[in-house]
Amino acid sequence: MANVGIRLLSMKHVFFLGRLSLNLNVRTYVSALFVSGKRASESFAILSPYLDFDERFSDMDKLKNELKLRALDVDAESVKNSWDLYKSVISNRDALEQKRIDTASQIKGLNTSNAESVDNEEITRLKTVGKVLREDLKVVREILWELEDSVIPKILKLPNVLHKDTPAFDPVILYSYGNLNPGENSSCSSSHIDIGRRLGLLEYSSPMNYYLHNEAALFELAVLRLAADEFVHDNTMRVTGLDFARSIIVEATGLDHESPEDSFILQDNEEVEKHSVNRMHLIGGASLPSFLAMHTKQLINPKYFPLRYFASGRQYVPFNSRLREAGMFTVCQSSVAEVFAMVKDSKSSEYAEEFERILDSAKLLYNSLCNHYRIVVRPARDLRPWESLRVSFELWSPYSNDYIEVGHLSLCGEYLSKRLLISCQTHYGRTFPSIISGTILSVPRLLGCLLEESPEEFVVPDKVREYMPA
C-alpha cells in the first residue's frame, strides 16, 4: 500500500501542507475506468465513475466475510485505510482551495476600497498567504494524483455486494424439471465430441477451433429463433449489439482489462495507439459488455423503466487455462441468447418481479428443449465480480457425470450503473437503475448435453425442429 504522510498545520490564517514521505509501490496495472489527474494529459477520460464506498466500508465484518465467501485474497483493512487516506487528502485540498478563494476575495475587497483606507501591509500579507496556499495546493494535488493511481484501481476491483439469497457454500436447487433417466445417470464411455464426429455433426480441434455440420448447424440457428420468439414480447426489444467494446466497459464489470484470460484484446488496431489504456476488445454482440455500451453515461427518463432487451448471436470468452478442456463446454466462441433488463430501484418489488418474469420465460424455453434440467442458485465462490446473485440452468452430462451450466441469469444491482454513469433523474435527484442480465442459453453447451443424452442418434427437440427447414 502507498505510504503517504500528510501534515496540515494552521498558523493564524495560513494553512501549510507538508509532505512527510511518499513511497508508492511500483505497479503495472493502469485503470481505464478511472483516469487520474496525473494521466489526464495522456488519456481522455470518457467518464468518472460514481465512487461511494463509505457505505461498503461501514460494515467491515460483512465485507471481509463476503470476500472470504468469494474466495478472494483481498486485504479489506488495507483497502479501507487507503480509501480513508484518499478522502482525507481531498478534504485537505478542499479546505486549502476554499482558503485560497477567501484570501483572493479579501485582496479584491481591499483593492476596490477607498484609497485612504487601504492597508498596504495587509494586502502584502494576504498576497504572501495566497502564494503559500497555491504552493500547498500544488503539493496536495501531486499527492492526490499518486493516491488516485494506487488507491482507486484497488477499490474498483472490489466485487458486488452479495444478495441475501446467495448461498454461502453449497448450491441450492431452486427448480427441477422432469426426471433423470437411470441410463443418463450412469457414466457414458463416449464424449459429445466423439459422438458428434461419428454422427457427422461436429468437427472439433480446440476451444478456439470447431465447426458444426448438417443438422447441428441447422439446430444452432433454429434454437436461437425459438429463444427469440419466447423472449421478444411484452415490450422486450430485440437488438443487435456491438461485437467490440472498449477497455472501460470491460473493467466496469470488474474484470482485468489487461488480462488475456478475461477478454480478447485487439493488438493491431489502427484506431487505438499501441500503448493506449483504453483498447478494443472482442466480446460479441450477445454479451453483457455489448449491452452496457448502449447506455454508458446516459440519463434515462424514469417513465421508460423497466427497459428490456434481447440479443442472439456470438459471445467471445477466452479459455481459462486453470480449467480442464471439456469440448463444447469450454469453447471460446459461442452462439448464445442474452437478456438484459434495467429497473429504476433495486429496493422496489419491480426488481424481484422482473427477475421472476425472465426466469419464467427461461423455464418455458427449457421445457421445450429438455427432458430434464434444473435451476440452481450458485454459491458466492462461483459468482463473477459484477454479480450479487446467479441462478444457473443446468443439464446432465453422462460423460462428465455431472451437471453442466447451459445458461444463467444474474442480479447485478447498481454495481454496473454507478461505474458507467447509467442514471435516471427523479424528484429526489439522480439515481442509478438496477440491472438484471444473463446468458439464458449457450448453444454449444446445450448441443453437447443433447448429444451425450442420445449417443446413437441426434434427437432434435420437436419445438426446435419447427424452426428448421423441412
Automatic annotation (TrEMBL):
Keywords: Aminoacyl-tRNA synthetase, ATP-binding, Ligase, Nucleotide-binding. Residues 100-469 form the Aminoacyl-transfer RNA synthetases class-II family profile domain. The record marks 439 as: Important for serine binding. GO terms for molecular function: ATP binding; serine-tRNA ligase activity. GO terms for biological process: seryl-tRNA aminoacylation. InterPro entries: aa-tRNA-synt_IIb, aa-tRNA-synth_II, aa-tRNA-synth_II/BPL/LPL, Ser-tRNA-ligase_type_1, SerRS_1_N_sf, tRNA-bd_arm. Gene3D superfamilies: Bira Bifunctional Protein, Domain 2, Serine-tRNA synthetase, tRNA binding domain. The keyword Aminoacyl-tRNA synthetase applies. It holds the Pfam family tRNA-synt_2b. The keyword tRNA processing does not apply. Signal peptide: none annotated. Its EC number is 6.1.1.11. It comes from the Eukaryota. L-serine binds at residue 338. It is an enzyme of class 6 (ligase). PANTHER family: SERYL-TRNA SYNTHETASE. Belongs to the class-II aminoacyl-tRNA synthetase family. Type-1 seryl-tRNA synthetase subfamily. This is serine--tRNA ligase. It comes from Neodiprion lecontei (Redheaded pine sawfly).
